[in-house]
């Protein structure tokens, strides 16, 4: 497989790998420059307090503007404070919201048009040139795994750790008051049918290491089994002293091309054979907390 | 996407689905015949008692004959009784064995040649005709997800719930005394580098809903965190009254082709758009316990 990154960058990177091998992912990250990273906008971050920790989510208004706006309204008005994790289905999803389904949505909308896909035009899409079972073209937009149909439509993929909108059977029945994340092998058949609104940057283990629900679809059968969500806050509403800052590798920068190649050709640390390919959902975009000054 | 199953079977199946849609997976299973299923051989089953339940594993000697034979020796001599789950790494693997790495392997071999792949000839391979990032050809052998390089080599894929052999950096350092299973998006870069020996038929949630280890690579840092494995028995050593019987859909029978098509074209129960494709590791082969008479 031909390296995706420019030879000039390869020359820099091979300084770290004396053998005739491609650089590894650690080499790529070590050789990256500030310009290869972007700071996550606190206006698009959710802090969700669950169990002993906090799940940090980055919202993606470029994919689902109506849903993201509605979720921000719900969060600001405290809708998710006291919500619960209601469903943990093995090798599928963890889902949260108001278990009674009766809590007022306040000034948020109760239903929205489905935003499962959108026009590809206007998104900064970087293809990764890998074969994919679900779409002719896959890659990344602003750090979010994305697929395209080659006919003008694009959608965020339901990879492990994506955050998407639960709804009823009708496609227009979702609001963002019920959210879920894939916790097993990516359920990509949800693509184009459900509306992803973001991805989890940190704290995924708070949603995956939970007892599986024994009811239908993995819902918890007893009220006491539901896991409390103490509070959800928007990043801009978190006091400066409590705020977390994150950097995500720019998926349209040269370093990311080198990262993809490194993942597609692992041949060190006990690996003899690089497979020469990598699945879209196995490309976890490098994400790191920024140390406070 | 053209249906993979014969039209005669389609005629039978569409009786269940009056609309002009492909049959769903439930329709396919309902319409299947006894000949579409095989009984799992108790000589290739492991009963691993963990926490409140039992993990049932089917071994695959056709892929890793030396490792499977060695594991059977270890099991019969009680090596795994009192072993522990030592590592749970988020979106990667759960791993178990002897945490001290000092327990005698008895009459089992301490190291074996790597059995990460084998000659494709001699395996009953059914292709699924789906695009795959890691291999030119993917399908199933006796219910095990399998890839081929088109040049005569075949290997079991590291899908969610596969059981594979832990080892050191040297490819020939494994024995089967240390085993792991993928618990997140399939780490297919392990293919051809690590030796799968089977897959989990039941009880996967006993290995996934565990606290993630906080040490390097997700190892538990405290002895008390390790999860005890009370006992592991070979199916043929389990008394008849305690035995569990399982049926697995034959992956070389027509019903399985219909099952693949149903998964690749979900268009009911809230799904509007069938994606026209399915990832190898999203094809969980129908597996069911057999009711006792």
Describe the structure.
By secondary structure, the first copy, chain A, is α+β, with helices and mostly antiparallel strands. Chain A has helices at residues 7-14, 25-31, 65-76, 205-208, 254-264; strands spanning 37-39, 45-50, 53-59, 84-88, 93-97, 118-119, 125-127, 137-141, 144-148, 153-156, 162-165, 179-182, 196-202, 227-234, 246-249, 287-289. Chain A has an eight-stranded antiparallel β-barrel. In chain A, strands 6-10-9-8-7 form a five-stranded antiparallel sheet, with no helix packed on it. In chain A, a hairpin with a 4-residue loop joins strand 4 (84-88) and strand 5. Mean pLDDT of chain A is 92; it is low at 1-18. At the A-B interface, loops of A face loops of B.
Strands in their spatial order, largest beta sheet of chain A = 2-3-13-11-12-5-4-14
Alpha plus pi helix count of chain A: 5
Return the structural class of chain A: alpha+beta
Order of helices and strands of chain A: HHEEEHEEEEEEEEEEHEEHE
> Measured on Cα atoms, how large is the radius of gyration of chain A?
20 Å
Question: Could you list the spans of chain A in which at least 5 consecutive residues all have pLDDT below 50?
Answer: 1-18
Distance between the termini of chain A: 42 Å
The most extensive interface, with participating residues per chain, is: A-B, 51 and 50 residues
How much helix, percentage-wise, in residues of chain A? 10-25%
Beta fraction of the residues of chain A? Answer: 25-35%
What overall geometry of chain A do the principal axes of the alpha carbons give?
A: globular
């Amino acid at each position: 497989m031909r390296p995706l990154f420019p030879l000039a960058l390869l020359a820099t990177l091979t300084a770290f790998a004396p053998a005739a091998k491609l650089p590894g992912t650690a080499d790529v990250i070590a050789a990256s420059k500030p310009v290869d990273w972007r700071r996550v906008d606190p206006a698009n971050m959710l802090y969700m307090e669950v169990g002993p920790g906090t799940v940090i989510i980055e919202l993606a208004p470029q994919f689902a503007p109506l849903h993201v706006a509605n979720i921000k309204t719900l969060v600001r008005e405290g809708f998710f404070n006291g919500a619960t994790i209601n469903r943990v289905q093995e090798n599928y999803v963890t889902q949260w919201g108001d278990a009674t389904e009766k809590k007022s949505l306040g000034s948020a909308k109760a239903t929205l048009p489905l935003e499962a896909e959108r026009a590809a035009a206007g998104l900064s899409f970087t293809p990764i040139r890998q074969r994919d079972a679900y779409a002719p073209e896959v890659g990344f937009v602003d750090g979010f795994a994305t697929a395209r149909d080659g006919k003008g439509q694009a959608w965020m993929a339901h990879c492990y750790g994506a955050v998407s909108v639960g709804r009823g059977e009708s496609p227009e029945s979702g609001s963002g008051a019920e959210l879920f994340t894939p916790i097993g092998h990516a359920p990509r058949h949800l693509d184009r049918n459900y509306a992803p609104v973001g991805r989890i940057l940190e704290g995924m283990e708070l949603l995956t290491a939970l007892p599986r629900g024994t009811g239908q679809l993995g819902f918890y059968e007893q009220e006491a089994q539901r896991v409390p969500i103490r509070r959800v806050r928007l990043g801009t509403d978190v006091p400066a002293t409590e705020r977390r800052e994150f950097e995500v590798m720019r998926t349209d920068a040269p370093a990311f091309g080198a990262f993809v190649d490194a993942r597609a050709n692992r041949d060190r640390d006990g690996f003899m054979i690089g497979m020469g390919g990598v699945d879209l959902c196995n490309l976890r975009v490098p994400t790191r907390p920024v140390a406070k000054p």
